[in-house]
Amino acid sequence: MSLVLILACVWVLAASATALLPLHRQMLPGLVLLVSAPVLLVWIGVVHGVWVVAIGLAAFVSLFRRPLWYLAQRAMGRPVSPPYREGRE
Description:
By secondary structure, the chain is mostly helical. It has helices spanning about 5-20, 25-50, 50-65, 65-75. It has four helices and no strands.
């Protein structure tokens, strides 16, 4: 297995571990994962081709669907409600 696929597997494990954290502790590791994913996907595309990138992109979108939806709404200028925080009213 190539180095890039090993790093992709580590990225998936890190994303899964981040999802287990409480919401207020997910921000920093989630941001790091969100920023590193496009770099990893481009690297996968260079080494393995478009079809492997399509699978990786589907996994990325499924893991980050809510933050990506929020960022898309903000980019289009539509009003968005703040994310729900447990214990805060």
